[in-house]
C-alpha cells in the first residue's frame, strides 16, 4: 500500500522533552522570548521554540526541532509544526540550539548536517555549562564556522553576541538594548507601577487629581 502525501501524518511532537534541565530551559526561553520581542511589530517574521520542522513533503521522518528558530517572510500565527511546503518552501533562516550535558558530538554533528542540507543561513549554539558559544554562517552550500563570536553581529537578526565576564550569553538588539529575562521585565514594570502609585498619592495630598 502506498501512502499518499495527503494521508501521511506529520506529528506535532517527537516525544522528546523541550529541555533536559532548568538551566537549559532558562536559556531557551531567554533566546526565544528575546527574538519574539525583537520582531514583535513585524508581521512577516515567524519565531518559534521547540517546533518540529518538516522540510520535505511526503517524508515525516526527516525533521528537526530547533530550540529556537526564525523564519523571515512567513506570517506570525499558531502552528502545530513547520511544514516547509506549506510555508512557501521557506526554510527557517536562523536557528539556535542550547546544549545540555546529555547532548553528544554525534547528535550535534547530525543537527549541523541537517541545517546545512536544508538551507539554514545562520546556526548558533550555546553551552551554558561550559560557557561556550559557537556560530555557523552559510557560504555557498555549506555552513562555515564563525571564527570569533565575541562581538559578532548576526547578518539576518542584527543582534550582537557576547559572553559576559561570568560566561553568560548576552544578546544585544540593534537598538542597543539587551535581551532580558521575564523576571527582569516584570521587575521593572513593578517598580514603574509603584512609582506611578506614589506620584498619584502625592498629587492627591496636594489637592490635585491626576
Automatic annotation (TrEMBL):
Q: Which domain of life is it from?
A: Bacteria
User: Entry's CDD domains?
Assistant: DUF820-like
Alphabetized, the UniProt keywords read: Coiled coil, Endonuclease, Hydrolase, Nuclease
* Annotated coiled-coil segments of the chain: 182-209
Pfam families in the cross-refs: Uma2
Q: Where is the signal peptide?
A: none
All copies of the Putative restriction endonuclease domain together span: 36-148
For this UniProt entry, the molecular function terms from Gene Ontology, in alphabetical order, are: endonuclease activity
> Glycoprotein: is it a keyword of this entry?
no
Q: State the PANTHER family in the record.
A: SLL0995 PROTEIN, SLR1095 PROTEIN
Q: What is this protein called?
A: Uma2 family endonuclease
This chain's source organism reads Gloeobacter morelensis MG652769
Amino acid at each position: 500500500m502506498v501512502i499518499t502525501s495527503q494521508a501521511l501524518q506529520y506529528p506535532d511532537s517527537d516525544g522528546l522533552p523541550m529541555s533536559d534541565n532548568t538551566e537549559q530551559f532558562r536559556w531557551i526561553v531567554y533566546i526565544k522570548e528575546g527574538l519574539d520581542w525583537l520582531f514583535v511589530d513585524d508581521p512577516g517574521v515567524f519565531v518559534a521554540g521547540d517546533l518540529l520542522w518538516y522540510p520535505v513533503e511526503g517524508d515525516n521522518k526527516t525533521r528537526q526541532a530547533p530550540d529556537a528558530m526564525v523564519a523571515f517572510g512567513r506570517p506570525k500565527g499558531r502552528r502545530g509544526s513547520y511544514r516547509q511546503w506549506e510555508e512557501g518552501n521557506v526554510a527557517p533562516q536562523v536557528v539556535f540550539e542550547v546544549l545540555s550535558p546529555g547532548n553528544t558530538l554525534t547528535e550535534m554533528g547530525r543537527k549541523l548536517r541537517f541545517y546545512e542540507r536544508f538551507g539554514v543561513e545562520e546556526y548558533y549554539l550555546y553551552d551554558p555549562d561550559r560557557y561556550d558559544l559557537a556560530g555557523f554562517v552559510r557560504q555557498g552550500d555549506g555552513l562555515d564556522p564563525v571564527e570569533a563570536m565575541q562581538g559578532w553581529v548576526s547578518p539576518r537578526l542584527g543582534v550582537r553576541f557576547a559572553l559576559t565576564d561570568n560566561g553568560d550569553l548576552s544578546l544585544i538588539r540593534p537598538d542597543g538594548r539587551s535581551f532580558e529575562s521575564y523576571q527582569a521585565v516584570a521587575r521593572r514594570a513593578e517598580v514603574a507601577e509603584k512609582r506611578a502609585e506614589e506620584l498619584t498619592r502625592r498629587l492627591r495630598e496636594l489637592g490635585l487629581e491626576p
